[in-house]
Amino acid sequence: MPSETETPTQSTSTDRAARLAVTVFPVLVLVAGALGLLLPDAFADFTTDVPYLLGVVMFCMGLTMSLGDFKGVAQRPWAVGIGLVAHYVIMPGLGWLIANLLDLSPQLAAGVILVGCAPSGTASNVVTYLARGDVALSVSVATVSTVLAPLVTPPLTLLLAGEYLPVDAGSMVTDILKTVLLPVLAGLVVRLLFGRYVDRVLSALPWLSALTVSVIVAVVVAGSAAAIKSAAAVVLLAVVLHNGLGLALGYGAGKVARLGKPASRAMAFEVGMQNSGLAASLATAHFSPLAALPAAVFSVWHNVSGALVAAWMSYRSRAERIG
Protein backbone atom coordinates (compact mmCIF):
# COMPACT_ATOMS: atom_id res chain seq x y z
CA MET A 1 0.00 0.00 0.00
CA PRO A 2 1.08 3.63 -0.46
CA SER A 3 3.55 5.05 2.01
CA GLU A 4 4.12 8.58 3.24
CA THR A 5 7.10 8.97 0.87
CA GLU A 6 5.23 8.17 -2.34
CA THR A 7 3.91 10.80 -4.72
CA PRO A 8 0.24 10.55 -5.86
CA THR A 9 1.39 9.17 -9.23
CA GLN A 10 3.58 6.53 -7.57
CA SER A 11 0.79 5.66 -5.16
CA THR A 12 -1.71 5.16 -7.98
CA SER A 13 0.77 3.04 -9.94
CA THR A 14 1.57 0.91 -6.88
CA ASP A 15 -2.11 0.42 -6.05
CA ARG A 16 -2.91 -0.58 -9.63
CA ALA A 17 -0.06 -3.09 -9.70
CA ALA A 18 -1.05 -4.52 -6.32
CA ARG A 19 -4.69 -4.93 -7.33
CA LEU A 20 -3.72 -6.62 -10.59
CA ALA A 21 -1.25 -8.91 -8.83
CA VAL A 22 -3.88 -10.01 -6.32
CA THR A 23 -6.34 -10.69 -9.15
CA VAL A 24 -3.87 -12.68 -11.26
CA PHE A 25 -2.13 -14.34 -8.31
CA PRO A 26 -4.58 -17.27 -7.94
CA VAL A 27 -4.13 -18.08 -11.63
CA LEU A 28 -0.34 -18.06 -11.26
CA VAL A 29 -0.55 -20.34 -8.24
CA LEU A 30 -2.95 -22.73 -10.01
CA VAL A 31 -0.58 -22.97 -12.98
CA ALA A 32 2.36 -23.51 -10.63
CA GLY A 33 0.49 -26.22 -8.76
CA ALA A 34 -0.41 -27.95 -12.01
CA LEU A 35 3.23 -27.89 -13.12
CA GLY A 36 4.32 -29.32 -9.78
CA LEU A 37 1.75 -32.08 -10.11
CA LEU A 38 2.52 -32.95 -13.74
CA LEU A 39 6.31 -32.49 -13.59
CA PRO A 40 7.31 -33.36 -10.03
CA ASP A 41 10.85 -34.37 -10.99
CA ALA A 42 11.51 -30.88 -12.38
CA PHE A 43 11.05 -29.34 -8.92
CA ALA A 44 12.41 -32.15 -6.76
CA ASP A 45 15.80 -30.50 -6.25
CA PHE A 46 14.32 -27.19 -5.05
CA THR A 47 12.82 -28.37 -1.74
CA THR A 48 15.74 -27.04 0.29
CA ASP A 49 15.36 -23.65 -1.42
CA VAL A 50 11.84 -23.00 -0.07
CA PRO A 51 13.02 -21.04 3.03
CA TYR A 52 15.17 -18.79 0.82
CA LEU A 53 12.26 -18.20 -1.54
CA LEU A 54 10.10 -17.24 1.42
CA GLY A 55 12.87 -14.87 2.52
CA VAL A 56 12.55 -13.10 -0.84
CA VAL A 57 8.79 -12.65 -0.27
CA MET A 58 9.30 -11.27 3.24
CA PHE A 59 12.11 -8.94 2.03
CA CYS A 60 9.66 -7.54 -0.52
CA MET A 61 7.14 -7.05 2.28
CA GLY A 62 9.76 -5.13 4.27
CA LEU A 63 10.45 -2.90 1.27
CA THR A 64 6.80 -1.83 1.20
CA MET A 65 6.76 -0.92 4.89
CA SER A 66 7.51 2.41 6.58
CA LEU A 67 7.80 3.75 10.11
CA GLY A 68 4.26 5.04 9.68
CA ASP A 69 3.04 1.45 9.84
CA PHE A 70 4.33 1.22 13.40
CA LYS A 71 2.93 4.64 14.33
CA GLY A 72 -0.51 3.28 13.51
CA VAL A 73 -0.08 0.65 16.23
CA ALA A 74 0.62 3.33 18.84
CA GLN A 75 -2.34 5.40 17.70
CA ARG A 76 -4.87 2.55 18.03
CA PRO A 77 -3.45 -0.09 20.36
CA TRP A 78 -6.93 -1.32 21.36
CA ALA A 79 -8.04 -2.10 17.82
CA VAL A 80 -4.67 -3.63 16.88
CA GLY A 81 -4.69 -5.72 20.06
CA ILE A 82 -8.16 -7.06 19.24
CA GLY A 83 -6.97 -7.94 15.74
CA LEU A 84 -3.94 -9.81 17.05
CA VAL A 85 -5.90 -11.74 19.67
CA ALA A 86 -8.60 -12.62 17.14
CA HIS A 87 -6.01 -13.75 14.60
CA TYR A 88 -3.95 -15.91 16.93
CA VAL A 89 -6.97 -17.39 18.71
CA ILE A 90 -9.52 -17.92 15.93
CA MET A 91 -7.35 -19.41 13.17
CA PRO A 92 -5.27 -21.81 15.30
CA GLY A 93 -8.44 -22.93 17.12
CA LEU A 94 -10.28 -23.46 13.85
CA GLY A 95 -7.35 -25.42 12.45
CA TRP A 96 -7.38 -27.79 15.42
CA LEU A 97 -11.17 -28.13 15.33
CA ILE A 98 -11.33 -28.82 11.59
CA ALA A 99 -8.49 -31.35 11.79
CA ASN A 100 -10.44 -33.25 14.45
CA LEU A 101 -13.86 -32.98 12.81
CA LEU A 102 -12.53 -34.25 9.46
CA ASP A 103 -10.37 -36.89 11.16
CA LEU A 104 -7.36 -35.86 9.11
CA SER A 105 -4.19 -37.93 8.99
CA PRO A 106 -1.43 -36.72 11.35
CA GLN A 107 0.54 -35.08 8.51
CA LEU A 108 -2.45 -33.21 7.09
CA ALA A 109 -3.76 -32.29 10.56
CA ALA A 110 -0.40 -30.77 11.51
CA GLY A 111 -0.35 -28.90 8.19
CA VAL A 112 -3.82 -27.41 8.66
CA ILE A 113 -3.00 -26.36 12.23
CA LEU A 114 0.31 -24.83 11.12
CA VAL A 115 -1.54 -22.71 8.55
CA GLY A 116 -3.79 -21.48 11.36
CA CYS A 117 -0.81 -20.58 13.56
CA ALA A 118 0.88 -18.48 10.84
CA PRO A 119 0.77 -14.65 10.84
CA SER A 120 -1.48 -12.60 8.57
CA GLY A 121 -1.24 -13.06 4.82
CA THR A 122 0.89 -10.73 2.72
CA ALA A 123 -2.08 -9.88 0.43
CA SER A 124 -4.52 -8.99 3.22
CA ASN A 125 -3.72 -5.27 3.05
CA VAL A 126 -4.52 -5.01 -0.66
CA VAL A 127 -7.71 -7.04 -0.31
CA THR A 128 -8.79 -4.77 2.56
CA TYR A 129 -8.19 -1.80 0.29
CA LEU A 130 -10.33 -3.36 -2.44
CA ALA A 131 -13.10 -4.00 0.12
CA ARG A 132 -13.07 -0.32 1.19
CA GLY A 133 -11.92 -1.43 4.63
CA ASP A 134 -9.65 0.21 7.19
CA VAL A 135 -6.28 -0.19 5.46
CA ALA A 136 -4.32 1.48 8.28
CA LEU A 137 -5.64 -1.07 10.78
CA SER A 138 -4.99 -3.91 8.34
CA VAL A 139 -1.37 -2.84 7.85
CA SER A 140 -0.85 -2.47 11.62
CA VAL A 141 -2.24 -5.92 12.46
CA ALA A 142 -0.35 -7.60 9.61
CA THR A 143 2.91 -5.90 10.62
CA VAL A 144 2.69 -6.78 14.32
CA SER A 145 1.47 -10.34 13.68
CA THR A 146 4.51 -10.88 11.45
CA VAL A 147 6.92 -9.39 14.00
CA LEU A 148 5.40 -11.55 16.76
CA ALA A 149 5.40 -14.75 14.68
CA PRO A 150 8.70 -16.11 16.10
CA LEU A 151 7.25 -15.84 19.61
CA VAL A 152 3.69 -17.02 18.89
CA THR A 153 3.65 -19.48 15.97
CA PRO A 154 6.02 -22.17 17.39
CA PRO A 155 4.39 -22.54 20.85
CA LEU A 156 0.90 -22.53 19.34
CA THR A 157 1.95 -25.22 16.85
CA LEU A 158 3.48 -27.27 19.65
CA LEU A 159 0.32 -26.93 21.76
CA LEU A 160 -2.17 -27.81 19.03
CA ALA A 161 -0.23 -30.03 16.60
CA GLY A 162 2.01 -31.80 19.11
CA GLU A 163 -0.59 -34.54 19.54
CA TYR A 164 -0.20 -35.43 15.86
CA LEU A 165 3.53 -35.06 15.18
CA PRO A 166 6.67 -34.13 17.13
CA VAL A 167 7.21 -30.35 17.04
CA ASP A 168 10.64 -28.80 17.63
CA ALA A 169 9.45 -25.35 18.72
CA GLY A 170 12.97 -24.06 19.34
CA SER A 171 14.14 -24.91 15.85
CA MET A 172 10.95 -23.40 14.45
CA VAL A 173 11.66 -20.11 16.25
CA THR A 174 15.10 -19.99 14.60
CA ASP A 175 13.64 -20.72 11.17
CA ILE A 176 11.01 -17.97 11.47
CA LEU A 177 13.63 -15.48 12.62
CA LYS A 178 15.82 -16.32 9.60
CA THR A 179 13.11 -16.56 6.95
CA VAL A 180 10.60 -13.95 8.15
CA LEU A 181 11.75 -11.40 10.70
CA LEU A 182 15.29 -10.76 9.45
CA PRO A 183 14.26 -10.34 5.77
CA VAL A 184 11.39 -8.03 6.77
CA LEU A 185 13.69 -5.90 8.91
CA ALA A 186 16.31 -5.88 6.12
CA GLY A 187 13.68 -4.68 3.65
CA LEU A 188 12.54 -1.96 6.04
CA VAL A 189 16.13 -0.75 6.56
CA VAL A 190 16.73 -0.65 2.81
CA ARG A 191 13.49 1.33 2.38
CA LEU A 192 14.55 3.82 5.04
CA LEU A 193 18.05 4.28 3.60
CA PHE A 194 17.25 4.17 -0.11
CA GLY A 195 13.56 5.06 -0.22
CA ARG A 196 13.94 7.25 -3.31
CA TYR A 197 15.20 4.30 -5.34
CA VAL A 198 12.88 1.72 -3.78
CA ASP A 199 9.84 3.83 -4.68
CA ARG A 200 10.73 3.41 -8.34
CA VAL A 201 10.33 -0.37 -8.18
CA LEU A 202 7.41 -0.65 -5.73
CA SER A 203 4.99 -1.51 -8.52
CA ALA A 204 7.09 -4.59 -9.37
CA LEU A 205 7.21 -5.97 -5.82
CA PRO A 206 3.70 -7.52 -5.78
CA TRP A 207 4.59 -9.41 -8.96
CA LEU A 208 7.91 -10.60 -7.58
CA SER A 209 6.16 -11.82 -4.42
CA ALA A 210 3.40 -13.52 -6.42
CA LEU A 211 5.87 -15.31 -8.69
CA THR A 212 8.03 -16.41 -5.77
CA VAL A 213 5.06 -17.81 -3.82
CA SER A 214 3.98 -19.60 -7.01
CA VAL A 215 7.38 -21.32 -7.18
CA ILE A 216 7.02 -22.33 -3.53
CA VAL A 217 3.62 -23.87 -4.30
CA ALA A 218 5.04 -25.77 -7.30
CA VAL A 219 7.82 -27.22 -5.14
CA VAL A 220 5.42 -28.17 -2.33
CA VAL A 221 2.93 -29.82 -4.70
CA ALA A 222 5.74 -31.68 -6.47
CA GLY A 223 6.91 -33.07 -3.16
CA SER A 224 3.55 -34.65 -2.40
CA ALA A 225 2.32 -35.29 -5.96
CA ALA A 226 1.82 -39.01 -5.33
CA ALA A 227 -0.52 -38.40 -2.39
CA ILE A 228 -2.51 -35.49 -3.79
CA LYS A 229 -5.08 -37.52 -5.72
CA SER A 230 -6.24 -39.31 -2.59
CA ALA A 231 -6.01 -36.28 -0.27
CA ALA A 232 -6.99 -33.37 -2.53
CA ALA A 233 -10.74 -33.42 -1.77
CA VAL A 234 -10.44 -33.50 2.02
CA VAL A 235 -7.65 -30.88 1.99
CA LEU A 236 -9.75 -28.54 -0.14
CA LEU A 237 -12.71 -29.00 2.21
CA ALA A 238 -10.50 -28.26 5.22
CA VAL A 239 -9.06 -25.14 3.59
CA VAL A 240 -12.45 -23.77 2.49
CA LEU A 241 -13.88 -24.26 5.98
CA HIS A 242 -10.80 -22.80 7.66
CA ASN A 243 -10.67 -19.71 5.48
CA GLY A 244 -14.43 -19.12 5.29
CA LEU A 245 -14.99 -19.41 9.03
CA GLY A 246 -11.91 -17.24 9.65
CA LEU A 247 -13.27 -14.46 7.43
CA ALA A 248 -16.70 -14.62 9.07
CA LEU A 249 -15.46 -14.79 12.66
CA GLY A 250 -12.89 -12.07 12.03
CA TYR A 251 -15.62 -9.76 10.77
CA GLY A 252 -17.77 -10.76 13.72
CA ALA A 253 -14.95 -9.95 16.17
CA GLY A 254 -14.78 -6.44 14.76
CA LYS A 255 -18.54 -6.02 15.07
CA VAL A 256 -18.59 -7.33 18.65
CA ALA A 257 -15.79 -4.92 19.57
CA ARG A 258 -17.76 -2.10 17.90
CA LEU A 259 -14.88 -1.08 15.67
CA GLY A 260 -17.17 0.00 12.82
CA LYS A 261 -17.71 -1.46 9.36
CA PRO A 262 -14.40 -0.46 7.69
CA ALA A 263 -12.39 -1.84 10.62
CA SER A 264 -14.52 -5.00 10.73
CA ARG A 265 -13.76 -5.59 7.05
CA ALA A 266 -10.06 -5.26 7.82
CA MET A 267 -10.45 -7.69 10.71
CA ALA A 268 -12.09 -10.24 8.40
CA PHE A 269 -9.07 -10.37 6.11
CA GLU A 270 -6.45 -10.10 8.84
CA VAL A 271 -7.97 -13.13 10.56
CA GLY A 272 -9.00 -15.20 7.54
CA MET A 273 -5.94 -14.71 5.31
CA GLN A 274 -2.72 -16.42 6.40
CA ASN A 275 0.94 -16.30 5.45
CA SER A 276 0.63 -19.68 3.78
CA GLY A 277 4.10 -19.35 2.26
CA LEU A 278 5.55 -19.43 5.77
CA ALA A 279 3.31 -22.37 6.70
CA ALA A 280 4.45 -24.28 3.61
CA SER A 281 8.11 -23.57 4.36
CA LEU A 282 7.83 -24.64 8.01
CA ALA A 283 5.79 -27.75 7.16
CA THR A 284 8.34 -28.83 4.55
CA ALA A 285 11.25 -28.27 6.92
CA HIS A 286 9.74 -29.69 10.12
CA PHE A 287 7.12 -32.24 8.98
CA SER A 288 6.89 -33.42 5.37
CA PRO A 289 5.86 -32.24 1.88
CA LEU A 290 2.43 -33.80 2.49
CA ALA A 291 1.99 -31.62 5.60
CA ALA A 292 2.73 -28.60 3.41
CA LEU A 293 -0.14 -29.44 1.05
CA PRO A 294 -2.84 -27.54 3.07
CA ALA A 295 -0.66 -24.42 2.90
CA ALA A 296 -0.27 -24.78 -0.87
CA VAL A 297 -4.04 -25.11 -1.35
CA PHE A 298 -4.63 -22.23 1.08
CA SER A 299 -2.33 -20.04 -1.05
CA VAL A 300 -4.74 -20.41 -3.95
CA TRP A 301 -8.05 -20.42 -2.14
CA HIS A 302 -7.65 -17.49 0.26
CA ASN A 303 -6.77 -15.17 -2.60
CA VAL A 304 -9.80 -16.30 -4.61
CA SER A 305 -12.16 -16.02 -1.64
CA GLY A 306 -10.55 -12.77 -0.49
CA ALA A 307 -11.04 -11.15 -3.89
CA LEU A 308 -14.67 -12.31 -4.06
CA VAL A 309 -15.51 -11.17 -0.52
CA ALA A 310 -13.75 -7.85 -1.12
CA ALA A 311 -15.79 -7.27 -4.29
CA TRP A 312 -19.02 -8.03 -2.40
CA MET A 313 -18.05 -5.72 0.48
CA SER A 314 -17.12 -2.95 -1.93
CA TYR A 315 -20.47 -3.33 -3.70
CA ARG A 316 -22.33 -3.19 -0.38
CA SER A 317 -20.37 -0.10 0.63
CA ARG A 318 -21.28 1.72 -2.58
CA ALA A 319 -24.91 0.63 -2.33
CA GLU A 320 -25.15 1.91 1.26
CA ARG A 321 -23.73 5.30 0.27
CA ILE A 322 -26.15 5.62 -2.64
CA GLY A 323 -29.06 4.45 -0.50
From TrEMBL:
Main subcellular localisation: membrane
InterPro entries, per database record: BilAc:Na_symport/Acr3, Bilac:Na_transpt, Na+/solute_symporter_sf
Record field: transmembrane: 20-38, 50-68, 80-102, 108-128, 135-156, 176-194, 206-228, 234-254, 266-287
Entries under Pfam families matching the protein: SBF
Keyword terms of this UniProt record: Membrane, Transmembrane, Transmembrane helix
CC annotations in GO: membrane
Membrane topology: Multi-pass membrane protein
Localization (cell): Membrane
Listed name of the protein: Bile acid:sodium symporter family protein
Species for this entry: Streptomyces tabacisoli
